[in-house]
Amino acid sequence: MSKFNLRISFVIILTFCFSALRVNLMHASTTKSAINQLYLDEMDLTKGTCGWKTMRSKLSVGGNPIKIATVTYARGVGTHAPGEITIKTNGASRFTSKIGIDDETNGNGTVEFIVYGNQTIIYQSGIMRGNAAAKSIDLDISAYAYLRLIVTIADGSNNNDHADWADALLEYETVKPVCIKAAELPWTEFRNKTVHYALPNKNLQFRLNVYGVQPITVNVTNLPVGIEFDSKRNILYGKISQEGVYNIPVSATNIYGTIEKTFKIEISNKLKMPTPPMGWMTWNIYRGEISETKIKQTADVMVSSGMRDAGYNYIIIDDLWQGTRDASGKISPNATKFPSGIKALADYVHAIGLKLGIYSDAADNTCGGAVGSLNKEVIDAQTYASWGIDYLKYDYCNAPADQATAINRYKAMADALNNSGRDMVFAACEWGDRNPWEWAAEKSNAQLWRTTWDIRDTWEFNDGDKNHYGIMNSLDRHIGLEYYAGPNRWNDPDMMVVGLYGTGIPSNAFGANGCTDREYQANMSLWAMIAAPLITSFELKTINDATKDILLNKEVIAINQDTLGDAATRIFKDGDIEVWARDLYDGGKAVAFLNRNNTVTKNISVNWSNLFIEGSYDIRDLWKHQLVGTSNTSFNTNVLAHEVVLLKLSKVDNANAVQLLKKTDNWNCFVQDKHLKINYSQPENGIVEIMLADSYGKQVLLKSITNFLSDKITADFDVSNLPSGVYFCRLKYANRISTKKVIL
Ligand code: GLA
Asked: Exposure pattern of 654-688 as b/e (b: 16+ CB <10 Å)?
């Protein structure tokens, strides 16, 4: 087994078993030794988070000597809300600091300082304003394995929130405290969506991401009929035939205790976006230089180039289409850019089989300075509906920074759209600043949300500015976010840059000057893997063959549009080499090998059994369009610099392969005289489980039978105590399962 194979097994165990650092809270020692001191400014601050620029040691976040209410401090850390420094105390006993807003804001800014010992707040400053005298903190921290030093936004905006932990000092006896990433905290928690959407009767897969110290025992109850729990991967899977909302209580237990949470599976025929949207958007190529002529021409090329038929069906007008509002508040488009009006344009694109999207912002003004929709949500939604709009991208410039306001403002527009009488997709665009994956679907009715600031036409920014995104920076942002994606709820890392070659107006900012075709191919492969919207923005009139080969690759599009809606997990990383994998509807898998090295080709070998596959799979290269092996042998390929090799693993029909969810149709069940009867010819000895559930999926009977085989008997259960109605009877034998409807 190669080094890679060994490592891949290790990483998979990490990913699927959710192990984490084991931490011992019991650190108290009986023999006292000398007290040592460690200034916060001597610790590794790169592990912390800072709401603007980066934290500074012995300086304010703006780079000046630390100064609070005219007092200067030689030691300390300058940061910016919202931010956190997370410390593993290693038994430290005391934390002291002077806190306040730095004088460099000239009296502006409002923040609150909060200190957690483990999961308990042990200090809270209350709201502190610029110019206020520093407050003193002196805390006994000997009972806590972890300390979290937090500065929060106190007034809805983080403007001028320059916060200082002046003279901050830790006292310890033997082992130095260390900074860790907040993500490394050991408590058990679920880091995944709370609602999974799915269509009736379609395979679904809901991945629970249980985080914390191993071992963790996950317990799932009240499973609806048709749904199983795979405890090896913490996945709920199966299918549900009836529309409705199914509640699933889940608990997770480790040495810190038990947490409980109820998740939902919502089955509906009316999902607006069961697979990620595909299309073309104006912004990255044209910025505000848009017009109805350009958009019609683009729409025509979407048809003639084959883009429409490949699935790219949305054409989205981004910012700077707006004119002014009339006396009633109704908005009109800019008459020079759109002399025939938006309705005429919508009619045009609809007539050729495309859909039309538009843009606005949850504030008075958009990012480009045009008229926004704040407090005009209802009239704007009605106007868009009357024009025949199908999709709204809703931006968040000029709006308050806090999450609560964002939730409300997005919900206000979603409600207005939903009451407008026309089906419109709702795409939230607050750039991932307020963790929209945790609320945009659940609370604000969005079908997708941006996860990053605007993408630029380059492979990667290495300038340390966390607001500069190339293809790789966007990809990195998605680690851990796969657990929040799924049908009708997609992470959006912004448009693909494929086809731009440095020609876009905003997409060439910060020195971005285009990518190679190989990099564009990687962009397409990775966006397909992470189930991102496949939305392009380039001069479609000049589309060349290389771009067509990339964008029209039906096999790659099929990965992106796979109806299971699973988003890829990075299952392996070793330096420049990464492996990403996602599950597919038909039981197959898509696997991407990425080489991030700038010059060197890497050879990657993989032992497929490490990918949790069972049975035999064909391996197909989706860019070469050919079979390249089977899972029965190990696989080896060269991956060029900045290349992605994209493979699809398809299950070979094999009698020995494990067939979960296979219908065992040689059984039946029926009700006679208030008795449930089951006939089954069991192929060999083994336990058969019979479960009966009501129409809401609630289990009302569970029995195990061992003698179908020997006696060929009919199992018979008295169900006279159950009310009449529709029930579902499920038979489970070995790895096969089947459900039938019965009427009582
Ligand atoms: C923000 C968005 C972009 C684009 C512009 C328009 O920057 O993130 O995608 O919509 O606004 O002004």
From this structure: eeebebebeebeebebebeeeebbbebebeeeeeb
Residue whose CA lies nearest to ligand 1 atom number 9: 454
- Are 292 and 334 contacting, i.e. CB atoms less than 8 angstroms apart? no
Residue 28's pLDDT band, with cuts at 50, 70 and 90, is very low
257 Cα to the center of ligand 1, angstroms: 44
What is the per-residue pLDDT across 487-498, written as a single tens digit (0 to 9) for each? 999 999 999 999
**DSSP codes, 401-446:** SSHHHHHHHHHHHHHHHHTTTS--EEEEESTTTT-GGGTTTTTT--
pLDDT higher than threshold 60 for residue 58: yes
Pocket residue to mutate for ligand 1, from 281, 282, 283, 477, most atoms within 8 A of Cβ: 283
* CA R_g for the chain: 29
Which residue has its alpha carbon closest to ligand 1 atom 11? 367
Tell me whether residue 454 is one of the annotated catalytic residues.
yes
Chain centroid to Cα 101, Å, comes to 34
CB 516 within 8 A of CB 642: yes
The atom of ligand 1 lying closest to the CA of 494 is 9
Q: How far apart are CA 162 and CA 42, in angstroms?
A: 20
The pLDDT confidence band at residue 710, using thresholds 50, 70 and 90, is: low
For the segment 367-386, the average pLDDT, to the nearest whole number, is: 98
Q: Which amino acid is at 43?
A: M
pLDDT at 361: 98
Q: Is 514 left (phi over 0), alpha (psi -120 to 50) or beta?
A: left
CA 266 to chain centre: 18
Beta-carbon contacts of 89 under 8 Å, excluding residues fewer than 6 positions away, are 27, 141, 144, 145, 146, 147, 170, 172, 177
Closest ligand 1 atom to Cα of 366: 12
> How many angstroms separate the CA atoms of 425 and 440, rounded?
13
Ligand 1 contacts CB of residue 318 (under 6 A): yes
For this structure, is 395 an active site residue? yes
Q: Coil, helix or strand for 719?
A: coil
Q: 326: how many CB neighbours lie within 10 A of its CB?
A: 9
The residue annotated as part of the active site, out of 395, 457, 494, 583, is: 395
Residue 128 — φ and ψ, nearest 5°? -115, 135
Per-residue CA distances from 134 to 50, 82, 217 (Å) = 20, 19, 46
Q: Does ligand 1 come within 6 angstroms of the Cβ of 366?
A: yes
Q: Nearest-CA neighbor of 424 among 379, 468, 386?
A: 386
432 lines ligand 1 (CB under 6 A): no
Q: How confident is the model at residue 34 (pLDDT cuts 50, 70, 90)?
A: confident
Q: What is the pLDDT of residue 105?
A: 97
Record the tokens describing residue 390, joined without a space. 């199908």
Closest CA to 582 of 709, 490, 483: 483
- If you average pLDDT over residues 268-289, what whole number do you get? 97
